[in-house]
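User: My instructor asked us to take a sequence, write out its structure as C-alpha cells, and then describe one feature of it. I'm not sure where to start. Here is the sequence I was given:
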Amino acid sequence: QVQLVESGGGSVQAGGSLKLSCAASGSSGYRFSNCKMGWYRQAPGKERELVSTIDSDGTTTYGDSVKGRFTISQEDAKNTLYLQMDSLTTEDTAVYYCAAEPSAYACWGGPYWGQGTQVTVSS
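Assistant: Let's start with the prediction itself. The C-alpha cells for your sequence are:
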C-alpha cells in the first residue's frame, strides 16, 4: 500500500521561503524515483493545479506561476520528495499535495495522493 506524507507547511511572510517534504512508503524496496512524482496545490475556491513534477528520468516541469521560484528535488535513498519554495507571495497560499503518478516503470496503480499540507503566505 502506497502512503505519501507531506510535511513542512506553515505560515510565512511574503518574500520568505519554505521547504516541503513528502515521505513515500510502499512495498519493501519500492523506489518512488521510478514513478513520476509531483506537487500540486489547491487554493480555496480554485481547482487543483500543477506546481511541479519530476519524472523517472529526472526531467522536471513547473507551473508558469512558480517557475524560477520553486525547485523540486528528490532523495532516492530516503524515498523523499522535496519542494523548495522561495520568494513566496500571497498567491502561493494553498494546500499542497504530493502525488506519485504512473510512469513507464512504476506506480501503475496511481496516481496516489498525500493528505496535503497547508501553506499560508501573509503580506
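For the description part of your assignment, you could build on this observation: The longest strand covers residues 18-25. Try explaining in your own words what that tells you about the chain.
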